[in-house]
Each structure stands twice: as C-alpha cells, then as structure tokens.
Amino acid sequence: MSIGLLAMVMLFVIAIGAYRGPGPEFDPGPQGPAAAPPIPERASSAGREAASPPAPAVPGLSPRKTDPPSEAGITSPEPSPPTVSTPQAPPVVPSPPRSSAPPVAKPAPIEAQYRVMDTFQGGFIAEVLIRNTSRSDLGWVARVEYAGGRVVTAWLEGVPQGTFDGRRGTLTYRSGPHLSAGASVALRFHIEFADPSPRNCSVSGRACSRR
After folding, report:
1. CB–CB of 112/129 below 8 Å?
2. Reported pTM
3. Which of 19, 74, 172, 204 is 20 to 30 A from residue 3's alpha carbon, by CA?
C-alpha cells in the first residue's frame, strides 16, 4: 500500500511542474492585431482575368442568358392555296312525268265486214269478210265477242286454215299464210246460245262494219 501511495505522490508532483507558466526564455513576439490574409493579385494580361462579380439581378428578369431561337425550331406557316371560285350550276328543272299509258296501235290497212249468214234453233252461222287494202302481204287477227254463248267451230273459205280459240262466247282467230295485197278472205264460225249481234268485232284493230 505504501508503494501505491508513493506512486500517486510522484504523479502529482509531475502534474504541478507541467502546469507552471513559461520561463524567461519564452518570447511571444510583438503583440498587435492579427494579420489579414494576403489578397490575391489580379492575374496578368498573359493569363485569364479574374472573373468579374456577377451583375445584380433586376427584379422580374432572369439573370440567365437567353439565346435567340434557332431556325430549325421555327416552322414557317405554309402558304394557303389561292381561292378559286366555282361557278354555280343552274338549277335543275324537273321534267314533267311521262305518261304511263301505252301507245295506241295504228289500225292495219284492212277492211272487215260482219254479217249473219244463217240462223236456226239454238245457234247461227256468221261471217267476217276480210280484205287487205295495202300493197304488201299481211297477217291478221280477228276478234268477235258475244254476250254469253259458245263458239262451236271456225274456218276460212278456200284458203289454208289458221288457229282459233273460243272462250265464253269470244272468238279469236289468227290467220295462217299472210293475205296477199288487195286479196280478200271469208272467216266463218258457228255460235250457239248467243245473240247474233256481237258486242265487239275487229280485225287487227280495225272495227268491222255491218252488211
């Protein structure tokens, strides 16, 4: 224990000696204000000049430099094509509607005469004499209508026969060979249960006369 106490006393003595002020050999130098740091000299003309202090910013303006817009970023408007006036077409006037009625056929150049040749109980024999008044051969169609009755038969006198159809008292006869120019032919037929006076008689559109 005495050794530890002795060590502590020695350490205390050393600390006191170190704390004492400086000796007479210490010269702090002339006292005065602290020297200012040296100011760097302006660079010579051979080197770069020192950067000038930035100009004060003006309120409302940006201190940055604004380059003019390049030509590549500017799009010039394309010239509009010249306006060409188009002449107005005259108003379209609708044409009047055409008549839907079929054209009236011109009667053939034929003469036709109707007559009753013989009558008997329940029927009679009638004739239509047909004459070609043109200068060329003609075919023809005869049509004789009765009120009721029945067509029994029909024939041509002395010439090749044609064809006929009899329905409900109406006789329709179509010629065989054409009728020569200026020639005549007699169409005869047997009718039952009908009035000898027909309601209509015509040959190729030409009305029959009576004899």
Report:
1. yes
2. 0.51
3. 19
